[in-house]
């Protein structure tokens, strides 16, 4: 086993981030074969985010742009992963029939903004073999947000891959208004050969199960890292924490971006502890109170914008220092989780901030 050194975190985190040097590999890359070829699992799991039990290598299959979307397609060894329906967590075990864990990352090439909550599917075809799967929106420690699933293939060879990308759910503002609303298909290929299999695998991590996370990997595609609080527009009012999810609150003087210029714009940027990945597909209620008077009490809207990234927002009468803002998780993020995230971001709790 290789031991990873611990890195100090910024003000939003209070524990360990494990540094790794693994990156996605391209067709002409030369890499040493990984130490193992299957992903292990951690027997005892703490509540919240914990260090996954393996570090993986991936084989990049290509990148292309279609419509508003740029997509990268890559694969690694099959994974056990977890999906969520409301608060019910289901475990999907990797099986002996699975050959690869196929992943797609979708983003806006102009801003390097990762596109969340789209409907993404992949059709693989080779000769008489045909398999089509809807990819789960997922979150992993090295990659952040992506779409993925395990696939059983039909031997070595080149597979034609059709990646279909649906419209992005939620409100878009600024330069994103009116974009990511079409359905597009990208024609790509997956090379499943002895050479590409030699690039992928998983190496055990000695710190597995400890509170913390693997650091984001160095990749050729962008990752869904939320803007640092100091980089958010407006007046940043503070940060709340629920079940290893951090909620950074900011407000802008005008909600013109959502058609209400006389109102203020309240925005909450939800991100993971340690790596600061954006958390998508969740329902967050907010109650804003000033001197005993309720100014806002409703569900925040899922919103995507170039400056705030993925966030939850509302137009409110105004925001002032001393106001009390209560955030309540009504539905946790409805995204699949790779190991290390399946025990976090599940609680439906409330927290109150004095702004």
From TrEMBL:
<dbReference type="Pfam" id="PF24041">
    <property type="entry name" value="DUF7350"/>
</dbReference>
<dbReference type="InterPro" id="IPR055774">
    <property type="entry name" value="DUF7350"/>
</dbReference>
<dbReference type="InterPro" id="IPR038482">
    <property type="entry name" value="Tp34-type_sf"/>
</dbReference>
<protein>
    <recommendedName>
        <fullName>DUF7350 domain-containing protein</fullName>
    </recommendedName>
</protein>
<feature type="domain" description="DUF7350">
    <location>
        <begin position="230"/>
        <end position="354"/>
    </location>
</feature>
